Protein backbone atom coordinates (compact mmCIF):
# COMPACT_ATOMS: atom_id res chain seq x y z
CA UNK A 1 0.00 0.00 0.00
CA UNK A 2 1.12 3.54 -0.71
CA UNK A 3 0.51 5.56 2.43
CA UNK A 4 0.15 9.31 2.02
CA UNK A 5 3.08 11.03 3.67
CA UNK A 6 4.99 14.28 4.04
CA UNK A 7 8.74 14.36 4.54
CA UNK A 8 11.12 17.11 5.55
CA UNK A 9 14.48 17.70 3.90
CA UNK A 10 16.65 17.13 6.98
CA UNK A 11 19.96 15.30 6.67
CA UNK A 12 19.99 13.67 10.09
CA UNK A 13 18.38 10.46 11.36
CA UNK A 14 14.88 9.67 10.13
CA UNK A 15 11.91 9.80 12.47
CA UNK A 16 8.58 8.41 11.29
CA UNK A 17 5.52 9.77 13.09
CA UNK A 18 2.17 7.99 13.45
CA UNK A 19 -1.06 9.90 14.17
CA UNK A 20 -3.74 9.71 16.80
CA UNK A 21 -6.87 7.77 15.85
CA UNK A 22 -8.91 9.61 13.19
CA UNK A 23 -6.25 12.33 12.84
CA UNK A 24 -3.95 13.06 9.91
CA UNK A 25 -0.31 13.60 9.07
CA UNK A 26 -0.98 17.35 9.06
CA UNK A 27 -2.17 17.24 12.67
CA UNK A 28 0.76 15.01 13.61
CA UNK A 29 3.23 17.49 12.12
CA UNK A 30 1.62 20.24 14.16
CA UNK A 31 2.01 18.08 17.28
CA UNK A 32 5.58 16.84 16.82
CA UNK A 33 7.19 19.37 14.47
CA UNK A 34 7.91 21.96 17.18
CA UNK A 35 9.44 19.26 19.40
CA UNK A 36 11.85 18.22 16.61
CA UNK A 37 12.71 21.76 15.48
CA UNK A 38 16.42 22.39 15.05
CA UNK A 39 17.41 18.73 15.38
CA UNK A 40 18.14 18.28 11.66
CA UNK A 41 15.98 15.16 11.41
CA UNK A 42 14.31 13.81 8.31
CA UNK A 43 10.76 13.95 9.61
CA UNK A 44 8.17 11.70 7.97
CA UNK A 45 4.48 11.99 8.80
CA UNK A 46 2.13 9.22 7.66
CA UNK A 47 -1.60 8.98 7.10
CA UNK A 48 -2.72 5.54 8.27
CA UNK A 49 -5.12 3.49 6.11
CA UNK A 50 -8.54 5.11 6.14
CA UNK A 51 -7.08 8.31 7.60
CA UNK A 52 -6.35 11.60 5.89
CA UNK A 53 -5.48 11.00 2.25
CA UNK A 54 -4.72 7.28 2.51
CA UNK A 55 -7.49 4.97 1.24
CA UNK A 56 -8.87 2.19 3.42
CA UNK A 57 -7.21 -0.59 1.44
CA UNK A 58 -6.68 -3.05 4.27
CA UNK A 59 -8.97 -4.97 6.64
CA UNK A 60 -10.32 -2.89 9.56
CA UNK A 61 -8.07 -4.50 12.18
CA UNK A 62 -5.16 -3.10 14.14
CA UNK A 63 -2.92 -5.97 13.03
CA UNK A 64 -3.61 -5.08 9.40
CA UNK A 65 -2.83 -1.44 10.18
CA UNK A 66 0.45 -2.46 11.81
CA UNK A 67 1.38 -4.79 8.96
CA UNK A 68 0.68 -2.03 6.45
CA UNK A 69 2.96 0.42 8.25
CA UNK A 70 5.69 -2.23 8.50
CA UNK A 71 5.42 -2.95 4.78
CA UNK A 72 5.70 0.77 4.05
CA UNK A 73 8.78 1.07 6.27
CA UNK A 74 10.37 -1.92 4.54
CA UNK A 75 9.85 -0.29 1.13
CA UNK A 76 10.46 3.40 1.77
CA UNK A 77 13.08 3.99 4.48
CA UNK A 78 16.45 2.76 5.58
CA UNK A 79 15.74 0.90 8.79
CA UNK A 80 16.00 0.97 11.69
CA UNK A 81 14.27 4.33 12.09
CA UNK A 82 13.07 6.32 15.06
CA UNK A 83 9.33 5.90 15.60
CA UNK A 84 7.12 8.51 17.26
CA UNK A 85 3.41 8.31 17.85
CA UNK A 86 0.55 9.70 19.90
CA UNK A 87 -2.39 7.73 21.31
CA UNK A 88 -3.34 5.06 18.72
CA UNK A 89 -0.25 5.90 16.70
CA UNK A 90 1.86 5.21 19.78
CA UNK A 91 -0.07 1.95 20.33
CA UNK A 92 0.92 0.87 16.83
CA UNK A 93 4.51 2.07 17.25
CA UNK A 94 4.91 -0.01 20.41
CA UNK A 95 3.40 -2.97 18.56
CA UNK A 96 5.91 -2.57 15.74
CA UNK A 97 8.75 -2.60 18.29
CA UNK A 98 7.36 -5.88 19.68
CA UNK A 99 6.77 -7.60 16.35
CA UNK A 100 9.45 -6.05 14.12
CA UNK A 101 12.20 -4.69 16.38
CA UNK A 102 14.56 -4.72 13.39
CA UNK A 103 12.67 -1.71 12.04
CA UNK A 104 12.94 0.44 15.17
CA UNK A 105 15.91 2.35 16.56
CA UNK A 106 13.99 4.17 19.29
CA UNK A 107 10.45 4.98 20.45
CA UNK A 108 8.79 8.25 21.44
CA UNK A 109 5.35 7.38 22.80
CA UNK A 110 3.03 10.25 23.75
CA UNK A 111 -0.17 9.36 25.61
CA UNK A 112 0.11 5.83 24.25
CA UNK A 113 -2.77 3.43 24.29
CA UNK A 114 -1.81 0.32 26.26
CA UNK A 115 -5.08 -1.58 26.32
CA UNK A 116 -7.73 -1.01 23.67
CA UNK A 117 -10.73 -2.08 25.75
CA UNK A 118 -11.97 1.10 27.39
CA UNK A 119 -13.40 -0.69 30.42
CA UNK A 120 -9.99 -2.14 31.28
CA UNK A 121 -8.09 1.17 31.30
CA UNK A 122 -6.81 2.55 34.61
CA UNK A 123 -7.99 6.16 34.40
CA UNK A 124 -7.41 8.98 36.92
CA UNK A 125 -10.22 9.32 39.45
CA UNK A 126 -9.52 12.87 40.65
CA UNK A 127 -11.90 15.66 39.59
CA UNK A 128 -10.76 17.71 36.57
CA UNK A 129 -8.78 20.89 37.03
CA UNK A 130 -10.67 24.17 37.19
CA UNK A 131 -11.47 25.85 33.90
CA UNK A 132 -12.64 29.35 33.00
CA UNK A 133 -16.29 29.85 32.21
CA UNK A 134 -17.05 29.22 28.55
CA UNK A 135 -13.79 27.46 27.80
CA UNK A 136 -15.60 24.91 25.60
CA UNK A 137 -17.83 27.39 23.77
CA UNK A 138 -15.89 27.15 20.51
CA UNK A 139 -16.29 23.36 20.33
CA UNK A 140 -19.31 21.61 18.82
CA UNK A 141 -21.65 20.30 21.49
CA UNK A 142 -20.95 16.74 20.34
CA UNK A 143 -17.30 17.15 21.39
CA UNK A 144 -17.87 18.71 24.82
CA UNK A 145 -17.87 15.46 26.79
CA UNK A 146 -14.79 14.17 24.95
CA UNK A 147 -12.77 17.35 25.44
CA UNK A 148 -13.87 17.63 29.07
CA UNK A 149 -12.40 14.16 29.69
CA UNK A 150 -9.41 14.56 27.40
CA UNK A 151 -7.94 17.93 28.34
CA UNK A 152 -5.85 18.73 31.39
CA UNK A 153 -4.86 22.22 30.25
CA UNK A 154 -8.40 23.52 30.15
CA UNK A 155 -8.49 26.80 28.28
CA UNK A 156 -10.25 28.25 25.26
CA UNK A 157 -6.89 28.65 23.49
CA UNK A 158 -6.05 24.96 23.83
CA UNK A 159 -9.55 23.99 22.66
CA UNK A 160 -9.09 26.12 19.54
CA UNK A 161 -5.71 24.50 18.84
CA UNK A 162 -7.13 21.00 19.23
CA UNK A 163 -10.16 21.77 17.04
CA UNK A 164 -7.84 23.05 14.31
CA UNK A 165 -5.80 19.83 14.51
CA UNK A 166 -8.92 17.65 14.43
CA UNK A 167 -10.14 19.31 11.24
CA UNK A 168 -6.81 19.50 9.40
CA UNK A 169 -5.61 17.28 6.57
CA UNK A 170 -7.50 14.92 4.30
CA UNK A 171 -11.05 13.68 4.92
CA UNK A 172 -10.33 10.07 5.92
CA UNK A 173 -12.88 7.26 5.77
CA UNK A 174 -15.24 7.53 8.73
CA UNK A 175 -16.96 4.22 7.96
CA UNK A 176 -13.65 2.35 7.97
CA UNK A 177 -12.58 4.05 11.19
CA UNK A 178 -15.83 3.05 12.91
CA UNK A 179 -15.47 -0.57 11.76
CA UNK A 180 -11.90 -0.62 13.08
CA UNK A 181 -12.75 0.92 16.44
CA UNK A 182 -15.85 -1.18 17.08
CA UNK A 183 -14.69 -4.45 15.53
CA UNK A 184 -13.50 -7.56 17.37
CA UNK A 185 -9.90 -7.09 16.21
CA UNK A 186 -9.28 -3.51 17.33
CA UNK A 187 -6.77 -4.85 19.87
CA UNK A 188 -3.47 -6.21 18.61
CA UNK A 189 -3.22 -9.94 19.37
CA UNK A 190 0.00 -9.40 21.37
CA UNK A 191 -1.26 -6.30 23.19
CA UNK A 192 -0.50 -7.68 26.67
CA UNK A 193 2.80 -9.41 25.83
CA UNK A 194 5.75 -8.08 27.82
CA UNK A 195 8.24 -8.25 24.96
CA UNK A 196 11.37 -6.28 25.83
CA UNK A 197 12.56 -3.56 23.46
CA UNK A 198 16.02 -2.45 24.46
CA UNK A 199 16.36 0.72 22.39
CA UNK A 200 15.99 4.27 23.79
CA UNK A 201 12.36 4.94 24.72
CA UNK A 202 10.58 8.00 26.08
CA UNK A 203 6.97 7.74 27.27
CA UNK A 204 5.14 11.00 28.03
CA UNK A 205 1.68 10.98 29.59
CA UNK A 206 -0.82 13.50 30.93
CA UNK A 207 -1.79 13.49 34.61
CA UNK A 208 -5.36 14.48 33.69
CA UNK A 209 -5.71 12.19 30.65
CA UNK A 210 -9.20 10.76 30.99
CA UNK A 211 -8.93 8.80 27.74
CA UNK A 212 -5.96 6.44 28.28
CA UNK A 213 -4.65 7.58 31.68
CA UNK A 214 -1.05 7.31 32.84
CA UNK A 215 -0.94 4.30 35.23
CA UNK A 216 -1.11 1.57 32.57
CA UNK A 217 1.74 3.28 30.75
CA UNK A 218 3.91 3.22 33.87
CA UNK A 219 3.30 -0.50 34.37
CA UNK A 220 4.28 -1.10 30.75
CA UNK A 221 7.70 0.46 31.36
CA UNK A 222 9.01 -2.99 32.33
CA UNK A 223 9.12 -3.59 28.58
CA UNK A 224 11.66 -0.79 28.11
CA UNK A 225 14.91 -1.19 30.06
CA UNK A 226 16.18 2.04 28.46
CA UNK A 227 12.94 3.89 29.03
CA UNK A 228 12.20 7.33 30.48
CA UNK A 229 8.68 7.85 31.83
CA UNK A 230 7.22 11.32 32.48
CA UNK A 231 3.73 12.29 33.58
CA UNK A 232 2.91 15.99 33.14
CA UNK A 233 0.50 17.96 35.27
CA UNK A 234 -2.00 20.21 33.48
CA UNK A 235 -1.90 17.85 30.51
CA UNK A 236 -4.35 15.37 29.10
CA UNK A 237 -4.75 13.25 25.99
CA UNK A 238 -3.87 16.09 23.61
CA UNK A 239 -0.60 16.71 25.43
CA UNK A 240 1.40 17.89 22.37
CA UNK A 241 -1.04 20.78 21.97
CA UNK A 242 -1.38 21.39 25.72
CA UNK A 243 2.27 21.31 26.81
CA UNK A 244 4.42 21.83 23.69
CA UNK A 245 7.39 23.29 25.57
CA UNK A 246 7.66 20.34 27.93
CA UNK A 247 7.24 17.89 25.06
CA UNK A 248 10.10 19.58 23.21
CA UNK A 249 12.39 19.30 26.25
CA UNK A 250 11.64 15.60 26.69
CA UNK A 251 11.94 14.94 22.95
CA UNK A 252 15.34 16.59 22.77
CA UNK A 253 16.52 14.39 25.64
CA UNK A 254 15.23 11.32 23.79
CA UNK A 255 17.04 12.35 20.63
CA UNK A 256 20.26 12.81 22.59
CA UNK A 257 19.92 9.28 23.95
CA UNK A 258 19.25 7.82 20.50
CA UNK A 259 22.55 9.28 19.32
CA UNK A 260 24.48 8.04 22.35
UniProtKB/TrEMBL annotation:
InterPro entries: AB_hydrolase_1 (IPR000073), AB_hydrolase_fold (IPR029058), AB_hydrolase_sf (IPR050266). Pfam families: Abhydrolase_6. GO terms for molecular function: catalytic activity. It comes from the Bacteria. SUPFAM superfamilies: alpha/beta-Hydrolases. Residues 36-244 form the AB hydrolase-1 domain. PANTHER family: HYDROLASE, PUTATIVE (AFU_ORTHOLOGUE AFUA_4G13070)-RELATED, MONOACYLGLYCEROL LIPASE. This is Pimeloyl-ACP methyl ester carboxylesterase. It comes from Micromonospora parathelypteridis.
